Amino acid sequence: MPSLKEIKTRIASVNSTRKITSAMKMVASSKLHHAQVMIENMLPYETMLEHILKTFLASEADASNVFTIERPVKRVAIVAYSSNSSLCGGFNANIIKLMQTVAAEYEALGKENIVIYPVGRKVAEKAAKLGYPLGGVFTELADKADVKQCIDLARELGTKFVDGEIDKVELVYHHFKSAGSQILTRKTFLPIDLKSELTKDHYRDLKSTVATKESQEYLRKRDTEQQASSPRMLDGKPLNDNFVVEPDMNTILKALLPKYAHLLLYTALLDSIASEHAARMVAMQTATDNADELLRGLNLQYNKSRQQAITNELLDIVGGSVNN
How many domains is the chain built from? Predict the structure, then answer.
């Protein structure tokens, strides 16, 4: 049985740890509030822009471009979002596990053809340890969201995709749903994934203006046949009944596609930062609760041992007086 001094030392140690975890919980809660405001303000804008762009690309027969055409994957890039520090529960472990799962799907390409773009020190260290080539280290982004760096990263990935250096780009991050729920998310960045719009059940919705995959292919085939039979037939006509493009298709796509790309990276970054603070707040709250429970047990054990020591001393005194 431990002595009173040992129990008292352990109580002091647990108290000190509890003060640290309680302070870290309060700091994470404050940072979470600011991060939550940022993601709540940005997410509706990014979601609506993504919906408009994908609906436009899915509905227009002539709107396809190099960013929407899928091609055989020979080289892939994975943008993984983690944190720079620990003590946030399973936040980093879950991201690393999903990153390894995604990379394992492209294992046949070879490690040299799987490029990791790590946003955060934890995932950068793990990717380097596993032997994957890094497209750069963006540790500062994990601490402070910077729109300019997201634009530069989106431009770099887009340029490499157009030049054929990368055939596919995937994002791995936590989507912030609430303070107690962060959803591990895997999303295709390039080529632009239209399946989210094309695979929706629009057949029974008579008011829907979103084209299905079959109708999109039909429009392309019909326009090709009409241009072959009468090249002047389509001159001056709008592209279809849903959209009238001004001034022209290329101008619209040049304006929307870069904005969509950097907003997607920036929103994922804000999601990840908010999720990190939420995970740390929950982890520190759990640690504080565990410390409180441990203190209750130690205090009870200390009081029992002290009472037993007092009882033994009284018995020794009484026994000594009786013998005398």
Answer: 1
